Amino acid sequence: MRQPLVAGNWKMNGSRASIAELLGGLKAGIGQVTAAEVAVCAPAVYIADVQSQLDGTSIKWGGQDVSVYESGAYTGEIAGSMLADFGCHFVIIGHSERRAYHGETDEVVAQKFTAARAAGLVPILCVGETLEEREQGITEEVVGRQLDAAIKHCGIAMVGEGVIAYEPVWAIGTGKTATPEMAQAVHAFIRGRLASNDQAVADVVRVLYGGSMNPKNAAELVAQADIDGGLIGGASLKPDDFLAVCSAANS
Ligand code: PEP
């Protein structure tokens, strides 16, 4: 039995004031969410604030990216040990926005996965196809390649210590959600690819769906056999919406 996980990806949004308000709302409502694990992934500069406001609650927190390096002359980079120093549990790796705007390759993403694990963080590895790739019928080829790169570089046992997030790029921030059946098909493919490397890993790894998931569509998505929760962008910025998604996953 895999514990559902709902993780918010705040992206580059918020201020100290708005984050305090958001966290206040989450803390007030999170008591109803007893079965699902819940986390928020904050912009790096706000992680200390998030730590001080969430410490002692059931809500975990994390970063949105990590350096492949441990320390040194890498201006602007943030090491896994730094995220761990501020109590981060999770870190998002290979989000499509980082792949698209920061040139992160499958190889770099795999290195980041290793760096995160070396710091004791749980990586949330994002995979997913663009609209063009879906229309070309190469979704499985793309997602399989992204997953294989991590398995090849990190080994299946290490991949088993992380979380996978299937995020069709065409569904992120667009309001277009994959239908539950479309998402389930790719999630089943991901689990099958993990199983072909190690059945025990495939049985325990959580595969989240991400892409315009919201209170209206969350229940149907998480009802699918291979969808173990969500990575939530826009809806994670509103406490009531995020809590509603958490409640949908809370079984
Ligand atoms: C995301 O960016 O990880 C995401 C899922 O965004 P949204 O929910 O806004 O589509």
Largest sheet: 8 strands, parallel, barrel
Extract low-pLDDT stretches: none
| Radius of gyration based on Cα positions | 17 Å
User: Using DSSP, what is the number of strands?
Assistant: 8
Distance between the termini: 11 Å
Helix content: 40-55%
Which percent range describes the beta-strand content? 5-15%
Number of helices: 12
- The sequence of SSEs as H and E is EHEHEHEHHEHHHEHHEHEH
CATH class: Alpha Beta
Assigned CATH superfamily: Aldolase class I
Q: How are the strands ordered across the major sheet?
A: 1-2-3-4-5-6-7-8
Mean pLDDT: 97
Structural class based on helices, strands and sheet pairing? alpha/beta
Q: From the 3D structure, determine the CATH topology.
A: TIM Barrel
General form: globular
Tally the structural domains: 1
Ligand identities:
phosphoenolpyruvate
For the record, the CATH architecture stands as Alpha-Beta Barrel
Give the topology, please.
Layout: E1 5-9, H1 16-29, E2 37-41, H2 47-54, E3 59-63, H3 80-85, E4 90-93, H4 96-101, H5 106-118, E5 122-127, H6 131-135, H7 139-154, H8 156-159, E6 163-166, H9 180-195, H10 199-204, E7 207-210, H11 218-222, E8 229-232, H12 239-248
Parallel strand pairs: 1-2, 1-8, 2-3, 3-4, 4-5, 5-6, 6-7, 7-8
Helix pairs in contact: 1-2, 1-12, 5-7, 7-9
The structure holds phosphoenolpyruvate.
